Structures are given as C-alpha cells and as structure tokens.
Amino acid sequence: QVQLVESGGGLVQPGGSLRLSCAASGIIFSLYTMYWYRQAPGKQRELVANITSGSSTHYADSMEGRFTISRDNAKNTVYLQMNSLKPEDTAVYYCNAHRVQGLLPYDYWGQGTQVTVSS
Predict the structure, then answer these.
(1) Distance (Å, rounded) from C-alpha 106 to C-alpha 98?
(2) For residue range 8-25, what is the model confidence (pLDDT) as tens digits?
(3) Residues 6+ away with beta carbon under 8 Å from 28
C-alpha cells in the first residue's frame, strides 16, 4: 500500500520559515519525481516545486528564491524549506509522487498539511 505522509505545517508569522516533510512508503521512491502543490481556500491547486529522480528542481515563479525542494532517497522523504513566508502562502500543501512506466502514469498523493501565515 502506497502512503505519502506530510508533516511540518503550522502557524507562522510573516517572514518566518517552515520545513515540510513528506515520507513515502510502498513505492520505489528514487524512481519518482516528487512534487509539492498547494491549494488555498477558493483557489485551484497549484504547483509549488518539483524534484526529479536525478534531483533536478523546478519552482513556480512566485516561490523561486524563497522555497527549496530537496529529497533524501535513503529516507524516502522529500522536503520543502519555505523561507520569507507571506500571508498569500497560506494553503494546504500536498505531496505528490509521479512517474510514467511505459505508457502508464503512476500518481500518488498525500493528505496535505496546513500552512497558515499570519500575525
């Protein structure tokens, strides 16, 4: 059974930092591209960042320079370091594991972790 379990969310003041973690089980973690998405109330889910199996990274424009995605294949875990947080970063953050084998896509999601940026 595949599980992705996010942790590390919470309430933080503007300008503060949080580090999210997503621990995966039931998959060969090193083969998957890992994504962080977020969804704010009343808005569509949006991509935050992703890291490939080869550790190449990509960020949404608004997160570039403030957020850092990383992975530890030995721990089957992907991280999202978030600095200089703004109220508009408030959202539920979701972890996603994705790969394509042959023509078949494999996608798995975590349950999400709430991040609230407020004074």
Answers:
(1) 6
(2) 999 999 999 999 999 999
(3) none
